[in-house]
Amino acid sequence: MRIVHLVISGDVAGGQLVALELLRASRRRGDHVAFVAPGPGPFADLVRAEGVTVHTVDVGRTFRLGGLLRLVRILREERADVLHTHTAVAANILSRLAGRLAGAAVVSHAHAHPTFRRQPLAAAAMRLADNATARLAARCIAVSESVRGAYVRQGYPAGLVVVVPNGVAVPDGEEGTGAGAGPAAPAGLRAELGIPAGAPLLGEIGRLCPQKGQPELIAAVAQVPGVHAVLVGDDLEQGGAYRDELVAQAEALGVRDRIAFVGYRPAAERLFADLDALVLPSWIEGMPLVVLEAMARGKPVIATAVGGIPEVVEEGVTGLLVPPGDPARLAAAIAELLADPERARRMGEAGLARVRERFSIEAMCRGVQEVYDGLRR
After folding, report:
1. Domains plus CATH for the chain?
2. 300 CB-near residues (< 8 Å, 6+ apart)
3. Residue 306 near residue 321, CB atoms below 8 Å
4. Is the pTM of this model over 0.85?
5. How many CB atoms lie under 10 A from the CB of residue 167?
6. In 10 A of CB 119, how many CB atoms?
7. pLDDT in tens, the chain (377 residues)
8. Which H helix or E strand runs over 32?
9. Contact at 8 Å (CB) between 293 and 272?
10. CA-to-CA distance for 33 and 109, rounded, in angstroms?
């Protein structure tokens, strides 16, 4: 089978990392794979390092018909059987048209809930176009039941949308485990940041943007004496302006010395060994890989009960769930978890077992390949 993946950007993010694992699984079974990205970036570099072609074409805006024609040409050159998209609504619309024109079956991968422009008329038009072109796709893969329900309610045919949960690799042996058993040895991230050996360290890993809830985490840290937090990720959407707002908030609350901004880190999963817990106070999520990665390393999770997160984090068993936009509840959950290291350790162990049972990378890749194979029938 010849597969072309279309990604939303050349940067590294959850959907792109899923596509990278699918690339590896496809090549293991003998499929030919190529990628299309709107521009250069660290993710495009990762794909090229795998020895895979990355074409550059932007179909991220509905009026870019030149991008549509260029994508059609690439699909024909690659003799694609499948165009697998990991994109937002505008690129979804054009890519489905491109797939139909090129004779490739389109699989639309929904990594998050649908979002549209704020202007009501523009949003309505895009929603109609999205629903109409969805019928040109062979399948839509949703990463969680929550995401599937959102698209069906929007107007996608229920039979079109299947759920394949995200999955992550589970480290061999005991590396990365030991949540709640006390701070890690003063090496790595702790040593780099100069965090005292006895100080609790929380982490949030993801791009800096309002939907990820970093302001709520900063406000919560201000309510829990002695706790430190590290924010791993770049401000990709506002060019640093949003990061400046977060720094100003930390300074105003008097916790700048307890909040570390370390930017994007490749292989961020290696940072979990230094964390006591992952915190993800997002306003909206599909099924965040970072939660699965934390659980795969035996770390308890404190997160908001949004999107597919409650399908992964079992309240009181693998972590704690709080409402979005509520720093006081978030602070209470942080204090509760840190006050009982033994309970935190049990949560980490339960999370690891849950990932092994239901959210392995093998299960994710197998589910997507079953979708591919179903297109042949």
Report:
1. 2-167+361-374 (3.40.50.2000), 189-358 (3.40.50.2000)
2. 179, 180, 277, 278, 294, 318, 319, 320, 337, 344, 347, 348, 351
3. no
4. yes
5. 25
6. 10
7. 999 999 988 888 889 999 999 999 999 999 999 999 998 989 999 999 999 999 999 888 766 788 999 999 999 999 999 999 999 898 999 999 999 999 999 999 999 998 887 788 988 999 999 999 999 999 999 999 999 999 999 999 999 999 999 999 998 754 444 444 333 333 578 888 999 888 999 999 999 999 999 999 999 999 999 999 999 999 988 889 999 999 999 999 999 999 999 998 877 777 898 999 999 999 999 999 999 999 999 999 999 999 999 999 999 999 999 999 999 999 999 999 999 999 999 999 999 999 999 999 999 999 999 999 999 76
8. strand 32-37
9. yes
10. 16
- Which amino acid is residue 232, in one-letter code? V
| C-alpha torsion sign, points 116, 119, 122, 124 | positive
Cα-based distances in Å from 135 to 27, 94, 98, 158: 29, 13, 13, 11
Helix, strand, coil percent values for the chain (each to nearest 5): 45, 15, 40
